[in-house]
Amino acid sequence: MTTWTIASAVHVLLDAENRRQDIDPLSDSWADFALETAYEVQDETLARRLMRGEHITGVKLGLTSRAKQFRMGVDTPLTAWLTDAMVLPTGDPVPLGRLIHPRVEPEIVFVMGEELRGPGVTAGRALAAVHSVHAGLEVIDSRYRDFRFTLPDVVADNASSGFVVTGSVALPPQDLDLALEACVLEVDGQVVHTATGAAVQGHPAEALALAANSLAARGVAIQPGWLVFTGGMTDAVPIRECGHVTASFTSLGTLALGAH
Ligand code: OOG
Ligand code: MG
């Protein structure tokens, strides 16, 4: 067994990301790698990103739908950080050369209007703090070989963060039924997955409340202006060179991502 520390885990994970070299899950060689320790690793990787000039732009939830939980073999939702370096402008291709084995997943995204501070936040209270709802696509890229990980592993790895794209259609939350908001995911013109917002914790606002309450345990409140990616509604799809992924939503418009 390796003697791991928070500092050595942070170094190994950020190095894997920078060099685009996948690694074995930390839990393979870190006996009793605890969830609290994993969140400390995640927070320290954020600190390193901020030190190199990045800014927090929001938070992402992971593993909030059965489709994602089943595929990844982890059934507990988690939270992770989004920085400006992870934001891909709409229309830009996926920078494949900076990623190990990217996959794309459709998400419902909140732009926050007010601060949201847990604990005790309900879905209703959470939705009242939302400024606008958007379609989103997340490009995930686990640093772990073949996306094989335990919950602490994926938490430490900032929930496989890669890039996020936010749709330009912005609706106030009261203008749509988010549980019924549907998404059709196509790869190269073929429908591969479909879901509605109810796939995400029964309602994406439940995921937002969950984020506020779990961040409260880390002394953090969700800030006005932050993006909140509520988690993949469907299983993610690999994106290859010359591939095109399109997510069409009932009310939130269509988002496309290409790689070339
Ligand atoms: C973990 C990241 C999960 C989501 O939306 O569920 C995530 C993974 O699947 O590699 O971003
Ligand atoms: Mg995601």
UniProtKB/TrEMBL annotation:
User: What are the protein's UniProt keywords?
Assistant: Lyase
Q: Which domain of life is it from?
A: Bacteria
Residue ranges of every copy of the Fumarylacetoacetase-like C-terminal domain listed in the record? 75-255
Note whether Protein biosynthesis occurs among the keywords.
Answer: no
Q: Which PANTHER family match?
A: 2-KETO-4-PENTENOATE HYDRATASE, ACID HYDRATASE
This chain belongs to the protein called: 4-oxalocrotonate decarboxylase
Organism (species): Rhodococcus jostii
